[in-house]
User: Fold these one by one.
Assistant:
Number 1:
Amino acid sequence: MTIRKRAQAGTLQSSDLMVFVEPAAELTVEIESTVKQQFEHLIREKILEVLRAHGVTAGKVRIADRGALDYAIQARVETALRRSGEA
Amino acid sequence: MIQPLGPSERERARALVESEGLAFDLDLDDLVGAWEGGDLVAVGARRGGILKTIALSSAHRGGPLLGELVTELVRLGSAAGHDAFFVFTRPEHAPSFEALGFSLLAAQRRAALLEWGDGLRRWLAASLPLVRPGANGAAVVNCNPFTLGHRHLVEQAARRVDTLYVFVVREDRSAFPFDVRLRLVREGTADLDNVRVLDTSRYAVSALTFPAYFLKQADDVAGIQMELDLRLFARHVAPFFHVRRRFFGTEPFCEITRAYNAAMLRLLPPLGVEAVQVERLRGRGEAISASRVRAALRSGELAGLEALVPPATLRFLRSPEAGPILLRLAGAEGRHA
């Protein structure tokens, strides 16, 4: 799928994350996280996995993470992608 | 459940906000709140990327409502195209925002300014290649446009430090747009080896840290803003660039700049930054200032300009590119117009 417009999902609450996506020529993933030091590579791998699963090859993806678990990351990224593809 | 508040609900919002000892103002893009059994129990507003006027009834403090309120304001701001968010709040509430991922930029007795995300860290990281060791100095300038007066300040300051950082105010609220102001400062100081020119981003004299600079009044609010602006500079910017001295020109005309100068002299030294005031360069009896240059441009007296501005600025003013700016000046009045 294609990121057609700016979209967002998630909350600022602890154990959650906020995902922002917007159209861009290349694929970039920016991660801010309270646990960035230890887990950035795992968070990034999870996000890339969701993007791959949806065939997303371009767009700017920004994550503000408050210590979310894998399934929360997956759900929030999927929701943001779905919102960004809606007409 | 956080909901938008319509115009008819503004008086309820005002009552809650004022009962918490905050001022309610209508300069906003979004106003949202939460209801419980017919009572308004939480209110928050957004203006651009700035979240403000956030108030919770006392029974709801410490619960999830603040996070829900801020989440909704960030969502609305993001949809409106903003990607950086800030909040002004009372210093005692700063920890509640830190728990939501905000970090403190500056605080004083009555107000705190926090940023969501790591914009400041990223701005500093992007400036890292310019950082030099030593006893360095800084000047924060608008240069609307760059004059011989600015040149004099930069020369005097550069002599007294290892590296001088000239921060050009990024905010585009002046007659000369930011990219032109920055370019004229770069060209006008290119021969000075130890001068580095960069922009302030949002982190000095901006619509965020010091909105009153772009207005006229020097009131209580302006005083609080100046202090937050200077504390942010002393706490985050100066240490990163090894800045020990901040330079500025004496101000003969403008009340708010004079108040800002006085605030630098008072606040910076205790924070570890020496405040150095440099006497203005005078030309034909009067201090050379950008406002004098703009007045000359407005009245079309281009003959005396070479006594006020360096060659690069003069070249620009005589170029076709300056046309729209000169036209705008001819039709405008105001402090930065």
Number 2:
Amino acid sequence: MRLGSLENLRSQLLEVTLALVVGFVGGAIALTAFGHNALENIQVMISYGFRDLGYLLLKSAPIVLAALAFLVPLKAGLFNIGGEGQLYAGAITALLLSKVGFYLAIPAGALAGLLVGVAIGLLRVVRGVNEVVSSIMFNLTLYYLSMFAIQRYLLDPVYTHQSIRVDRVLSLPEVVAVMLLFPLAVYLLLYNTELGYRIRVAGSSSRVARYAGVNLNIVTIQSMAMGGFLAGLGGAIQVYGVTSVVDTTLSSLYGLGFLGIGVALIARGNPLAVIPAAILVSGLLIGSHWMELRGRVAPELADVVIGVVILALSAPYAYRVLTSRMGWGVGGG
Amino acid sequence: MVVDSYDILLYLAFASITYMTPVLLASLGEIIVERSGVVNIGVEGLLLASAFAATLVAIVTGNPLLGFASGALVGLLAGLIHGVLAVYLRADQIIAGLAFNMVAYGLTVMGLVSIWKHHGASPRVGVSLEEIEVAGYYVNPVSLASIALAILAWYTLTKTRVGLALRACGEDPRAAEAMGVDVSRYRVAATSIGGLLAGIGGAFLALEVVGQFTRGISAGRGFIALANVAFSGWNPLLAVPGAYIFGFLEALSIYMQQWALGYEYVARTLPYIGTLLVVTVFAWKAIVPRSLAKPYVKE
Amino acid sequence: MKGITKVYPDGVIALRDVDFEVYEGEIHALLGENGAGKTTLMRILYGEIRPTGGEVWVWGERVEFRSPRDALAKGISMVYQNFTLIPNFTVLDNIYLAVSSTMRVSREEVVGRLQMLMGELNFKIPLEATVEELPVGLQQKVEILKALVMGARILILDEPTSVLSPLESRALFELLRSLKAKGVTIILITHKLREVKSVADRVTVLRRGRVVGVFNVGEVSERDLARLMVGSDVVVENRGVEGVRGGVALSVEDLRVRDDRGLLRVKGVTFNVRYGEIVGIAGVQGSGQKELIEAIVGLRPVERGRVLIDGLDVTGYGVGERRRMGLAYIPDSRGEGLALTMSLTENSVIGLLERFLGRLNSVRWGLAEGYAGGVVRDFNVVHRSLWDPVLYLSGGNQQRLMVGREISANPRIIVVHEPTQGLDIASSNLVRSKLLELKRRGSAVLLASSDVDEVLGLSDRILVMFDGRIVGEGAPGDFDEEKLGLLMGGFVEAR
């Protein structure tokens, strides 16, 4: 098993750390610009975010899955921005079938996500529709349809601002098992199986993929199916493990898909690194809600910080220029 | 009854002109950007940021023109930043665009909460531009200007030397550079102008369409603009009917929400399902600028 | 150019203290083998690259070019091997764009100047045609016209004949002589000795980044030049390795193939390749070899005709299936044969993965690593770690890796397209000897190369291809240089 040389690992860690610093600086600037005390608020965010370990892990699990949902198609050269929609589909389907039982509802949610993913993949393969555009259209459509479904079919008769409850809430060990199992499974798939190899070749270059006899169309559908499956599962886990209900404004589901994308990027495309990255991002998220309580700052500060981190990570060349100027040799052109 | 439906159709037809404007402006901007070989997925965030800026300035100064100007300025700056990231720092353009969307969303909501103490919407702007009367209906001057801009953009791209050089950057930057075209500068200029246009679109969205800034006001319009860019074959003239189709879908959706009680949410999906259908059905293999989204490295 | 040195960030020293001098109005050849540094030196002169050390003087003035635009301003223009023309723009658009970057002109003025030049130089090109429609020889003329319209006084040509048929090459040299008569100074980058002798006044020889000699062409022999270029007497190809001719391995019947744009590029080709023989296809680039090869390998659909492997009709089979039948393929482009972001090991098993699978379709990386180790050892691929991305390797090493992994698999049939491109003479000889060894062990080899000497030297049988057809067939000894040149150039003999 090889994850690249140790030197490479060190350089990536440095890159991520630097990006995090830049992200926090960005957040601080935003806070100050809107008239808040930057230091105080960020301190709250960081200190409160990581306090409750159990809650932290629970919240990370769906994000891990959402990250993997972006990561697998990425390896095939596709941008699965549709994680949001696939996640909603998974959550709502799980809710719909919760009367039957969690053993059916959760896989059904994953399946729902898979179907959405396949739809996006098919559109690309058959009609050449760019997956970024179709993903967003699906996201927005499923957003409204989900709210419609809750309002019409899944409304709690007593608490009318939220949906019905699920039959059984998953326990922490169960959720953690999922959180650890799937990244490992994805890692083994990508780096130790023939399918994973074909996916990565397809993602490296479409010309080489043809040369190697890899059918790009099939790989597209396969990777989008897997991505959808993972995101749908994430939605189901969010409902069954974290919130047990979904409110009518979908606020507990909104943004998870995009956070997953961020986590996948912070993890530099490594399935195993998704776990710590998701925990980090979850902590920031939880912290931002505490910050809202105490400082009356919108929790969307977390979006700003994470967004700036991703921006910083999107320009590795800048990092290389910076470090070579500072004299830190990081090897390899 | 026939008169009724004719009236409704006419009303929708004119309303569509207003609704199409933000998408058209964003599409025009992005066509220029993509013809130069860069992709800016951050158009969505651009619309958000410029809408916010325009609302803020318009409320504070009471002058819609200043609102438009600030929206344009914010768009210009954001476009410039994306250009620098893409060209000089060789960032992954798609990821940088997505990240920008996230940052813009976060910043605008923060602003909403911090400035106006509200989680959903700003106060109503209250002032807007004087509309022009056409056959009993009202059309916004900016809408007409955007159509004129489309024609101007087409002419510049196809008939002038600057347009030729810009297209060269998108087709074959290596050849363009060897012919003496400063590809980097053209690309950054293109992203800046693209941002400027989208910025005007965002300002229009806030000031003229909605009348205030709401959380997530762009509602996918940036991505619809991206779809329109491909749908129009990177041709500014064709971007107009494309944007109009979207505008019509949105007008229709809003109209339907009025009488499809209980199904409002479903009606709201109309523009998106519509866009998806249009893009799927009309998926001709347009002439993509060959070097789209690939950073050009000089040595 | 005095004392020019160029060191790349990864440590490669491309040029070492090179002095290069050109007189006005002469045709000066810059001779050297692949990788000697000729193109690098000229790119410095053209302002594309900055030297790490040394000075450049033009017309007696010290200059420091920051970009080609500066060089153009001084009247220096360069025509590259892969043209810097925008394929789907018209000829006029391309030239107008280039000219208007350095001076203010109108389209009409450009048209006027072009027509005048075409008249003076006695050839005509349709200005409204798109560049990609034109044959390669004409595209090159467009490049030269472009340079002249921009007022080039010094014209640098980088391996111009690599894409031309012998006939077109002769026409080019005529053109160069006319230009010289008009007072244009020409620098000709080449590795072909014959060219130096036929058209140049003086020659500078580069080897491994250093100048090893400067001569008046009349005073030096081809052998001397060859020796200086390589450092020893050039080993004359000895392909007298006899193999046992076996049954028919690969067969092509009346094949018609279209390219991506729908143009018919292979117009009824029939031939076969037996086990234990090397069949070589000689032809100028663009004669249809690429499409023919892609059809044989399974990367391009066939419009009419059949492809047979071991007598079995495989015309409908995909690449993977053909490979499983024992077919290997070395493409002419590394961008096609190597996944640059993946490691050496992973690239070594592309196309061969079935051999390295274990239970449950898992990949046995240990085994793959072993194979990769063998490839890099046998083919001298200089590398740091087998798990580094291939993109860290230099072009030559990448080529050797790609060639090596196909050959090391001991395929029964191998199709090879431009195997030694970008390789220095030592590596080229290595690759050729490996191909001969494959043949000796009974494999069937189909070789296509624009290097005529390579084809002549390696093949047991030669097919000459022009414009999608086989226009000549026979043993290498049947063809002399002139006959070959004519066939490649499309002049079919009256039978």
Number 3:
Amino acid sequence: MTSFDQQVGLHEICVDIGDTPILLRTSDPRFRELIAERYIGFVSNPGPAESTFDIDLLPRPHFPLEGDESVELEPNENDDDVPLIVKHEHGQWRLQRGDFHAQWDSATREGRIVQAPTPYAIDTLLRIVHSLIQADRGGFLLHGASAIRNGKAFLFSGISGAGKTTISRLAPHDTTVLTDEISYVRFHGGSYRACGTPFAGELARVGENAQAPIEHLFFLAKGPENRIESIRPSDALRMLLRNILFFADDSTLVEAVFRSACQFLERVPVSRLTFYPDVHVWDLIG
Amino acid sequence: MTIASMADTYIARSKEIAARNLDGEMMIMSAVDSTFFTLNPVATLIWQAADGKTPLADIVAQRVCAEFEVEPAVARQDAEQFVAELSQHGILLVSDRPIDPESTSMEKP
């Protein structure tokens, strides 16, 4: 923060998810506190950041979308039916929903968001920006739960109702739950790691800020018994792509995500886990 | 596309795709509309032979019929359907003359 920033009262907070710190700046100290509470466990001291966003707060912002440019966020967003625009134009990403408008320069890593003084817009912004950052690095955000046990991370992906929160609730006491909603997958040093996220589902609590090498990805289904089955590579790729957060109207991004998904499947075992909701399912997992 | 016209049909892979052979199965995704295809072995062969220079009729006669036990008429019909479907999604480019390699893509490693 510069002396000028201090004079005009900018309040900074760094949200560090997946070893990818994003610095947020606001003139409203109450909003800074709101962010600090929401992302508790993922807040670090302001320092070198992967990206910086200035936040302009408006009491009741409204950014109507043109009918022909409304794009649904892939099926992984909390607000499934809320139209969202994510477009790369003139070297900048434009992100827009009814309640916020943001721009982000992926080269300078500087951005600005105009939004209501609620955490929902910044939550969506963080998911999108992290998805874009990881797309360049072979990683991705996945609609799924994840947890660490015995130093190994396990991912559990599936559509709403498949059992992500259930499998998280059933986790033994020696398990670290990273998230029950959005898993963070990093490609680092030639291998994949799962990182905790503050993006909560029905469990309604942020994950642990921890990480570990990914041992296995399971696609979840509920059934009368616990069993693990193999999946054909083509089916695994189809299911994985269906659950990765990305925005399909950008061809460069689609190619990057496809490449990342293929690379992931070449390195991480994938199976279908059908489970009956009791604690014994974890005996199968590891 | 008719059987007679296949001799004058050239096919090439679009640049706007991502493709990967994963464990023996060719998977293709349109970068334009995210449509996802898994190709069977015959379709994979046609896909790989889609260089923009070889007529589709030659691909079917010299590659498909030579490598698979399939009747020529059936092979031609299947090839027509395959090309029509992928071209609808912009994954294959189709022309009645050879296609400039600069406007096509090669399979990604």
Number 4:
Amino acid sequence: MMRTLLLLIPALVLSAQTAPVHKAAATSPAPMTNFKISGNANAAVEIDAYTDYECPHCARFFAEFMPQFSADYIKTGKVKFVHRDFPITQIHPHAQLGARFANAAGELGFYDIVVNQIFKTQDAWSLYGKNTGDIDASVAQVLPPGAMQKVRELVKTDPRLDESVKTDVDMAMNVDHINSTPTIVVVSNGKREPISTIMQMPYSIFKQYLDQKLAGK
Amino acid sequence: MNRIIHQGNLHRWLIAGRLILGVIFVVAAYMKLKAPWIEFAGSLNAFELLPEWALEPVAKTLPWAELALGVALISGVWQRWFSLIASLLLALFFTVMVRSYIVGLKIDCGCFGPGDALGPKTLARDFSMLALAVVVTIGSFRGQNKMRPVIA
């Protein structure tokens, strides 16, 4: 009995989290981007990261760069971090679907865990691995069944998922002029500085650069 | 008379070659300087040649050196020496690029900023630039030596 009650608690929490979101989905056309933002919203320096879920370098970016960067700058509130979608659909047929799954999960409060899972399991579904396109199976491994069902519904039906991606892609093309992923953009004093060689440098060099920015140099 | 005309043509070709080289160096410098220094540091590190401590100083100074060299080549001051420096610098770049290509590095050359993948096209382009610089250098030294008795 106790076990059943314990199992019910996450389900109740989940339904409490998701109910207003569904209402919002029905009434608001605004892009869903808040879950893509983490760290200190008022920080002087903002880091935007453009990634493509089917790009192998982006998977490396999330596995190798992000854990240390998150511990040093996001969790400490030194920067504002914005994860942006830039699916290069001409060469990556499953990238858009990956973004839809991640953004649907984000709407339910599971963004980070699903983003990491999609990248971590890239070999199982991507063009460079088994090429099954079965992102659903990967995401289902980390979400409770109830949440997974809601994610599936959103992925199938919610047009705002694509609008959210389009907003990021427009930003990449028209503002930051990005042509590869992963690319990060360091925003400080109103200036946006794209860095496309982020995976070609030691973390310590990026840290040196970012510390200079934070010190106002 | 024919010799004078021939020398005049050679002189014009040398000026054209020097100006082309100068503009190439200025453009290469501009493409790097408009991005933050760390972008070029990443390109440099991809060649796996520089120690970590050297990345920041080289990334910050090399584009300015290229700009100064480009301006000097365009202006024509100390033409022989600046064309010699350009030749040596391009020989160094070309050697590094060939070595990286042979060992199979899949990287951007970073020559004109990001998004310039190292491959046969970039190698051919840089070899052409090196050949031009060598021709301008040799021509400058020869031209200078031939001019001396005439002036005297």
